[in-house]
Amino acid sequence: MNEIKKSLRDLELGELTEILLEAGEQAFRAKQLYAWLHRKLAGSYAEMTNLGTALREKLSRSYSVALPEPVAVPESKLDGTKKFIFRLEDGHVIESVWMKYRHGNSVCISSQVGCRMGCRFCASTLDGLARSLSSGEMLAQIYQIQRLTRERVSNVVVMGSGEPLDNYPELTRFLRMISDENGLHISQRNITVSTCGLPSEIRQLASEGYAITLALSLHAPNDTVRQTLMPIARRYSLQEVLPAMEYYFEKTGRRVTFEYSVVQGVNDTEDEARELARLLGNWKRGGSCQCHVNLIPVNPIRERGWKRPERRSVEAFRQLLCRNGINATIRREMGSDISGACGQLRRDYLREETAER
Ligand code: SAH
Fold first, then answer.
1. DSSP summary character for residue 195
2. Are residues 23 and 113 in the same domain?
C-alpha cells in the first residue's frame, strides 16, 4: 500500500483555521475551504476557484482532498437501492449503500475496513480488521454518493462494515462534522449508530450530548445464545451491556433500537421471543415502550451454514413481542437482488479482483 497524504477532510473547522493562520492566511479562508470540502463537496483543489492558486498548491503538497473512487455501483431493479464499492487512497476497498425511502434518501456507511468483532453471521469480519476509517473517509462516502446521485442525503446509518465504537475518536469527529451547520448539516436525529455492544464506549457516547439513535446488536434473549453468535458476548455479558443502553437512554432521552438477526434453529423460537420480551421488560415505562426491536431475517453468507427462517415464523416472533408490549418491526429488505449478505458484495468484488490479477 502506498504512503498517503493526510486528508484535509479529516479536520474540523477549528483545526483548519489553525493551519491556515499558520500559513499566513486569514481565518475566513478556512471557512471558504471548509465550505468547499463539506458543503460544495469538492473532490479536487481545481474546483476551489475562490482560493488563490498559491494557497491551493501549498496545501496540496501536504494534504489530499480526493474522494474515494467508485469502482462498482450495482443498482437494484427492485427498489432503486445502489451499492457503492469505493477504492480508498491506499487501495483498500469499502462498501456503502444508498437507499431511497419515501421520507428521504438514506446512506449506510462503513466505519472500518473489515472488522475484528467476529460475529458468526457477518461477512465483514471474515478476514478480520485491516484498519479503521478516518472521519473524512466516513464523510467522503456520503459526499461522493450525493455527488454521484445528485440527490440530497437526509439519513445516515453507521451500519456498514466495522464496529463504530471500536473507532471511537474518528466516529465522534464524524458525527460532529456531518451535523455541523457549516457542512451538510444532517440532523443528529436522522443518524443511527449500530454497535455490537461495548459498554464503556456506549456510556462515553451517552455523555457527548448528541441526539443520535443508538442501536445495539442484541441477536439473542440470553448470554448463552448470544455467545454462540457473537464473540464479544463472552467479554461483556448482557448484565453489563443492557444497563449501558439504559444509561444512554437516561442521558439522551433517545429511544434505543435493538437489532435481532433471526437465524433458523438458533434464536427464532416462540419461547425465545417471550424470553426477549422479559429481558426488555423494564423498557416499558409510563405505559409506553422506550425501545424498538428491529428483526432482521438473517442474510445467509456463503462461508457459514446459517439459515433464514420462514417469513411466517419471523412474523410470529414479532407478534409475540408486540403482544408483550415491546415495539417490534421486521426490517424491510432493500436491494436484495444486488446484495448477498451485508459486506458480501465487497468480498465478491475483492475475489474477482484477485482472480483477474
Ligand atoms: N458493528 C456494528 C454494525 C454491524 S452491521 C454492529 O455490530 O452493530 C449492522 C447490523 O447487521 C448488525 O446488527 C449486524 O449484526 C447485522 N448483520 C451483519 N451481518 C448480517 C447478516 N448476514 N444477516 C443479518 N444481519 C446481519
1. E
2. no
Active-site residue among 108, 119, 196, 342? 342
CATH number of residue 46's parent domain: 1.10.150.530
Cβ–ligand 1 contact at 268 (below 6 Å): no
pLDDT one-digit tens code per residue, 286-325: 889 999 999 999 998 877 889 999 999 999 999 999 999 9
Same domain for 12 and 101: no
Q: How many CB atoms lie within 10 A of CB 77?
A: 10
Protein residue with least CA distance to atom 17, ligand 1 = 122
The number of C-alpha atoms within 13 Å of 344 and in the hemisphere containing its C-beta is: 17
Is 256 inside any structural domain? yes
Cβ neighbours for 12, distance < 8 A, ≥ 6 positions apart: 173, 176, 177, 180
Centroid of ligand 1 to alpha carbon of 124 (angstroms): 9
Q: Is residue 1 included in any domain, yes or no? A: no
CATH assignment at residue 192: 3.20.20.70
The dihedral over CA atoms of 327, 254, 276, 161, expressed in degrees to the nearest 10, equals 110
